[in-house]
Amino acid sequence: MNKKLYILLSNTNLYSHFSQKNNSIMFINAPYIPFIYYPKFTPCFEANSYMIYLFKKNLSTFNGGTLLTYCIRISLLVRFISDHKNISNFSDLTDDHIYEFISFLKLRKITDSHIINIFKQSVDFLFFIADLYNLKYFIGFSSEFQIKLRRNSLNPSYYTHLSLPPTSPKNIINPISLVDIKKIRLFVSEIEDQALKFRNLCILDLLEFTGARRSEILNLRVENINNANLNSMNGNLPLLEILILKRRVGSNIRKIPIPQNLLNNLMRYIRQYRTKIMRKNLMQKHDFLFISHKNGDPLKSDTLTTYLNIWSKNSNIFPAIHAHQFRHRFITEKFKDLILQHKINNVDEFTKMLLSHEKIKQQVLQWTGHTNSSSLDVYIHIAISELTNLTDSIDQVQKNNSINYLKSNINDLINDFNNSKISENDFLEKIKYLVNE
């Protein structure tokens, strides 16, 4: 049996519309889009039509993105139908088959939370099929439908089904603690290979000080760093342009101010390490910032996840840290800064401030790359719960990022010196360089 029923296509031209003006068919390019097939490699027309439908709704697609996640979910329904002796088409599905489908998922040892997500995506797909074939009584909320859904008692806009396992409270992903950041940095700073150590510390710094997603950091180009450096040389605040990979329409670039020392380290990584590796691997012709030091390939998101698992294990951090926790920490710290600056005492006051100060709200959204301020509510609660002293000076708050970054660099140098990795002269020179920046 095939392990998966899909492949990820790149640079695919899709039909858009017929242009009367040009008297020709117009196409749109899909940089990435999943292609779904049955176990015998016959294309699944309905599933692929659904993928195109979702693509046109502007879901993220970089290296698959959200679109690939949805593809994986409905591919299980495709497999269920292909394995079932009494189902020839999706339109044959009945309420009894939904019970069988949920049992099919349980036999594959899929967790309850994933089963619920697969069900929701499959139902959306089946609604699409009902519309595609004009199946009036295929799926709905009364006894007259082949597939009978129920309204969610807590939220009427959501639907459920009697076959589903009970829902459990949603797990809140907490920000990485400052203690765990120090543990991870300490382990990485002890890596013997100086080039790898420097690269990995730069990645950790970007995770902590930009709030970018792992894929967004690994999508950074040398050009982005050079542009930030040029901006800095002109006497301006270093601004790093980050491509928002979860957005395909509107402005998909956000500019994040970064500490000058972080920019200096990124420039040093390019000059001292990356350039040499790329010269050794002449076949590599790309501009990605972070690369494999073995062959010059761009680093992949899964590789970073593997690194974080290893670093966590060796730092005695359980469960393992994942990249998104750095993003949660970044956003939480930004809210703490705002709360301190505006002397806010509770969540309600802060929410009102965001609603009434459009400029502030847009700044928060610019920092985070979110499109809806309501998605930031959880961070407001965490920020206020973490603050125990709301009278810190505004000036001190504004300097926190640069000071924290400088401290982390100095700690790394002290650790290297104590472990005889650098000489006393090198230690003093590098300290002088950091302090004078």
TrEMBL record:
Residues 171-392 form the Tyr recombinase domain. Keywords: DNA integration, DNA recombination, DNA-binding. Coiled coil: none annotated. Pfam families: Phage_integrase. PROSITE patterns: TYR_RECOMBINASE. PANTHER family: INTEGRASE_RECOMBINASE PROTEIN MJ0367-RELATED (PTHR30349:SF41), PHAGE INTEGRASE-RELATED (PTHR30349). Belongs to the 'phage' integrase family. This is Tyrosine-type recombinase/integrase.
